[in-house]
Design goal:
Length: about 950
């Protein structure tokens, strides 16, 4: 057997350098050990110096911050160097993300989703990016070996402790994501370790911690599923493989502990699967293994089975026992020196590939982490946002902001969970004063705080109120019942309810109470169930109508959940493996019930203009929509710009028999900024909820995305100035419209407030106190210019603005000699233009695109549009007020009754304009996004 193995493995045929003739030094390279404490302890120092320990496994108990970790790793390497180690230490870490992160630093180390959370994104590209980012961060602090990826296939999802540490229950999917992780680790320059061979995905647990979990599948069954990801990882060049401490009992193989079995390591992993890298044993101090065999005897058995590196990570006594066991095994001839040299060669090869003294003694540390922070933060948010999965929402409860008014209360019921070892809550406890690591009760309290912060964040973002209570195995108490009766909606959090059965019972009890509750016109109290770990809790329980999975309860995951609940994020995650098809069928059935395609045709002015005027009249007569006032003064010509600098594409859904328009959509493309704009979507009120708007939207957006040079998509147009975005004057209608657009692809998180403003009573208006003196102290001069002779200086300024429509409006104003002009602002004794604004009136050639100018025929309203102020100017508000003031004065001279500001940035300009007497006429949420990443949801 030994000859077969040696002949088939090229890397181990090399001779070891003379430095390794010392048997004690050689043996030290074949152990992986850990220690307690955040600084070098006398015990670990002794192991490195006297026994020449070659590999150290760090865990959360060793690590407080990136800076501390960098110092600790450097101290360990320095000790090894001074002790005469020929090669650096291998420093290993479990950093699986999600709930298994040994290193956490909220300032430097980013949190990424668990393996199943990443799989829920459906993107192997995201998996690669997450793996590389994780490895880049570890390399920065001096770590050179990552204990991952998990290659276990969850062939038995019930009573499964691995949970979200696995990518799922489909072998092909686990293989695919495992390959992406391996590539990410390799490209970052860190060694990898597949685990837990031959799979922890289908273990039978007998109850006691002294009982070894058992794999009962035959080798044939394992080969069909569980072994596939390990086989693929070997093909992709995985550097190491960790063999588990489970038992195997089936025809063809019988092993009390897999990592101590020659059948598993040498026969199955080495020969049948062809793995020639480093094999690591499970920790020999695990209770079942140490109780049955003992650490010393287990060490000899592990090496004889074919392991190259024996893991003993818990106690110094256990580590000494392992060392003595290997020494006695050599002395008694139970294990040969030749066998150990095979393992040494493999360890030296992995070290030569992934570390050097130059690298080990000069970690880049927090300086490099600072450079990575922005891109890694963006990746973390993107990954979590893409992973959140709505499994069911049968009653349309999401987002809650559509369902509840701000003054209504949401009750959050959460289990008492310990916080993740690497989390802000856990770190706060661990670093509190000089106290030792927190007690169990402290940890539970900290875990409760995680969900308390989640509840407060939800209340803040929906501008409402929250109630919060924890629950335990004691079930639904009178306190819970009282809170449920008081609340307007209930959210129940679960975490591995398949194993923590009290959570399952509690959730079903709450569901029953909600079903029996009667609140106003609602048949039952809204209930949302959220699994923050394994999605299998209620994936198949359709009695719970709204079910969401986050896969983690990290701070970033819970913030993504908040965004979903308030409607600022449209989740795109999918359940893993075998559950995905059920989810797609359910979503397809929902889609088929609510959406049907309509023929969306290109606009034809001769054919459709009169019909559009009729549709606009219908909409203005509809009292229930917020478009009634916005559309005042609109005609079919309002939406037809006919400008050489603006491309426009409009679409209709029509009854070809009666010629009536059932819906209309206007789109524009502004080449100056590469912006495609959705200007409006109208649907006949009598035909709402028939997918007409959806069909128009999809046709329009597809048309925009096909335009060469398009960079950005925007919902809301400053020209024509009708809908500047999603109307937001009415909170309920705003929620409904934001949700509608979010479900078809728009990201509400990118919205910003804009509005149009009106200054009435111009004949009696006077300049606010202190405004003139403020302008004088700013030493700004203003003038009014017309015509293309002034285009140069104005163009230099407006080119600093990337806003859609700015360039085109100024171009219109420059060429219009009748009703338009441009007010410029310059510093005294300086020709450089620092601010501009367009003024116009009803006689301008483009006033038809501003329907608010024509609100009442007996009023004369002047317009002010598109202020641009140099980024170098510090007195932004003063200069803006000055430009608007000059516009007002010009319109006063023309006997106007009022002034319209047709587009105002609502983020910070409203206050200074209301101080001048302006009031908000219409308010909107302008939404924009990158055209290259826009995903149209059909």
């Amino acid at each position: 057997m030994e000859d077969m193995m040696t002949d088939s493995l090229t890397p181990v045929s090399m001779e070891c350098p003379p430095a390794w003739d010392d048997v004690r030094r050689m043996c030290g390279q074949l152990f992986m050990m850990g220690f307690d404490g955040t600084e070098v302890t006398p015990q670990i120092k002794e192991l490195i110096e006297d026994f020449h320990l070659g590999t150290i496994l760090l865990t959360a108990k060793n690590l407080r911050s990136a800076e501390q970790t960098t110092k600790l790793v450097l101290d360990l390497q320095t000790i090894a160097r001074k002790a005469g180690h020929p090669v650096p230490l291998a420093i290993a870490l479990d950093q699986e993300n999600g709930g298994v992160n040994s290193l956490f630093d909220e300032n430097c180390i980013r949190q990424f989703p668990s393996a199943m959370g990443v799989a829920a994104t459906g993107s192997t590209k995201t998996a690669y990016e997450v793996a590389k980012a994780t490895a880049d961060e570890l390399c920065s602090v001096g770590i050179n070996w990552i204990m991952g990826p998990c290659l276990d296939v969850l062939t038995n999802v019930k009573n499964q402790p691995l949970g979200v540490r696995s990518s799922g229950d489909d072998a092909e999917e686990v293989s695919k994501f495992g390959t992406a992780y391996l590539k990410g680790f390799k490209d970052a320059g860190i060694a990898s370790c597949g685990k837990h061979f031959p799979s922890y995905g289908n273990l039978e647990f007998l109850g006691s911690s002294l009982d070894v979990p058992v794999i009962t599948e035959s080798l044939e069954q394992l080969s069909l599923s569980a072994l596939a990801p390990f086989r693929q990882a070997i093909r992709q060049g995985v550097d190491a493989m960790m063999v588990g401490g489970c038992a195997m009992s089936s025809a063809g193989v019988n092993a009390m502990h897999a990592c101590l079995s020659e059948q598993v390591v040498d026969d199955l992993l080495r020969i049948k699967l062809g793995f020639d890298g480093v094999v690591i044993s499970e920790c020999l101090e695990m209770e079942a293994l140490s109780h049955n065999i003992g650490v010393g005897g287990g060490t000899v058995m592990a090496f004889n089975a074919g392991c190259d590196l024996v893991l003993v990570c818990r106690s110094y006594n256990g580590q000494q026992e392992a060392i003595n066991g290997l020494k006695v095994g050599l002395e008694n001839g139970v294990i040969t020196e030749a066998r150990l040299r095979q393992s040494l060669r493999r360890m030296l090869e992995i070290k030569s590939n992934f570390t050097s003294w130059e690298r080990a003694l000069a970690p880049t540390g927090t300086a490099q982490l600072s450079n990575l922070q922005d891109s890694h933060t963006e990746l973390s948010v993107k990954a979590y946002n893409s992973s959140i999965t709505i499994v069911r929402d049968k009653d349309g409860l999401l987002p809650l902001s559509n369902l509840l008014d701000p003054d209504e209360e949401v009750l959050l019921l959460s289990p008492l969970l310990k916080p993740l070892p690497a989390s802000a809550a856990s770190q706060a406890l661990a670093s509190h004063g000089d106290a030792p690591r927190s007690s169990s009760s402290d940890s539970l309290l900290s875990g409760e705080n995680v969900f308390q912060r989640f509840g407060k964040s939800l209340a803040r973002q929906r501008d409402g109120r929250d109630l919060h209570a924890s629950y335990t195995a004691n079930g639904v108490r009178p306190m819970h019942e009282n809170l449920i009766n008081r609340a307007n909606a209930v959210i129940v959090i679960t975490a591995d309810a398949n194993r923590n059965l009290y959570q399952h019972g509690f959730t079903k009890h709450v569901a029953m109470i909600c079903k029996l509750s009667q609140v106003a016109h609602k048949p039952e109290k809204p209930l949302v169930v959220v699994s923050v770990s394994s999605p299998y809790d209620f994936a198949m329980d359709s009695a719970l109508g709204t079910y969401i999975c986050t896969y983690d309860h990290t701070e970033t995951a819970l913030q993504a959940l908040v965004n979903v609940l308030v409607g600022d994020l449209v989740p795109s995650g999918e359940l893993p493996g075998s559950l995905r098809q059920n989810q797609k069928v359910h979503q397809s059935n929902q889609s088929n019930q609510s959406r049907q395609p309509w023929l969306a045709e290109a606009w034809d002015k001769a054919r459709d203009a009169d019909a559009l005027d009729t549709l606009l009249h219908r909409l203005r007569q509809e009292p229930s929509t917020i478009s009634t006032l916005i559309l005042a003064g609109c005609t079919s010509n309002t939406f037809l710009l006919s400008h050489r600098m603006i491309d426009e594409y409009h679409f209709v859904v029509r009854n070809s028999t009666t010629k009536a328009l059932l819906g209309f959509c206007a789109t524009y493309f502004f080449p100056s900024t590469g912006t495609g704009v959705l200007g409006c979507v109208f649907v006949d009120p009598d035909r709402s909820k028939l997918s007409i708007g959806h069909s128009l939207h999809n046709r329009a957006v597809r048309s925009l995305l096909q335009i060469p040079g398009i960079k950005r998509l925007q919902l809301g147009s400053r020209l024509p100035s009708v809908f500047l975005g999603v109307p937001s004057s009415n909170s309920q209608e705003r929620k409904r419209l934001r949700q509608w657009f979010s479900t078809i692809g728009w990201d509400n998180a990118t919205s910003r407030p804009v509005c149009s403003m009106l200054l009435p009573g111009l004949a009696t208006w006077s300049v606010p106190k202190n405004l003139l003196s403020s302008l004088q102290s700013a030493e700004i001069e203003f003038d009014l210019v017309y015509g293309l002779d002034h285009a140069g200086s104005i163009h230099d300024l407006i080119s600093t603005s990337s806003r859609q429509g700015i360039m085109e409006i100024y171009q219109l104003a420059l060429v219009d000699q009748t009703g338009s002009g441009i007010i410029r602002a310059r510093r005294k004794n300086d020709e450089v233009v620092v601010g501009t604004v367009v003024i116009y009136n009803a006689a301008s050639s483009w006033s038809q695109a501003i329907p608010a100018l024509h609100l009442r025929t007996d009023d004369v309203i002047g317009g002010i549009s598109s202020p641009v102020i140099s980024p170098s100017v510090g007195e932004y508000s003063i200069l803006l007020q000055g430009l608007v003031l000059m516009g007002i004065k010009q319109h006063q001279r023309q006997q106007a009754n009022g002034v319209l500001l047709d587009y105002v940035d609502g983020d910070g300009n409203i206050d200074c304009l209301t101080a001048m007497g302006f009031t908000v006429l219409h308010s909107f949420d302008e939404i924009s996004g990158d055209a290259s990443t826009f995903e149209l949801i059909t």
